[in-house]
Write a structure and sequence with these properties.
The protein is mostly helical. The protein is elongated, with a radius of gyration of 23 Å.
Length: 172
């Protein structure tokens, strides 16, 4: 029974580096006076686990969250804050953004990027064939391979897609 419990505990995920830094920043700066006597546990990163289920946030999620910290205008708060997240604090300097809205925005950005990366080579090939400027099939193959490489790089950079998912998306 103890072995099963240890295995279940080991299966829990470590917190993302961004989440760890966020809690560490809160403990050291904002909530430091409140937790000063008992905050030594925060420095034992190996012992921490994440109770939050869901996917590990990708690079684009983190970039958007950093951008939201910099742009604290009313429009950003209107788009990314809900009444529920606004009710979490009375401090006007602290804003909580809704993770679902951030995820929807990231999904929209990735969808637009993928659509653009899929449409540009088709448009370029069409324009080249209409104008008669495309010389050989080698030019066509190089153009298609280039955009497939850019598409695969965008998928691996902006998402947490696994290798086989990237290969399947590039082949399609």
């Amino acid at each position: 029974d103890l072995l099963l419990k240890a295995n279940q505990l080991k299966a829990l995920e470590k917190p993302a580096a961004r989440d760890y830094r966020s809690v560490l920043h809160f403990m050291e700066n904002d909530g430091g006076a409140m937790y000063e006597g008992e905050m030594s546990w925060i420095y034992d990163k190996e012992d921490l686990i994440s109770l939050r289920p869901g996917r590990e946030h990708a690079w684009l999620d983190g970039m958007l969250e950093r951008l939201l910290k910099v742009c604290r205008c009313g429009l950003v708060r209107y788009i990314f804050c809900t009444a529920e997240t606004n009710a979490r604090t009375d401090n006007p300097a602290i804003h909580y953004y809704d993770r679902r809205r951030i995820a929807k925005c990231v999904t929209l950005l990735i969808t637009i990027l993928i659509l653009v990366l899929l449409m540009i080579p088709i448009w370029l090939l069409y324009k080249s064939s209409v104008n008669g400027t495309i010389g050989t099939t080698n030019d066509t193959i190089v153009m298609i391979l280039s955009f497939t490489l850019i598409f695969s790089a965008a998928l691996s950079l902006f998402t947490k897609a696994k290798r086989h998912e990237i290969v399947a998306a590039s082949a399609g």
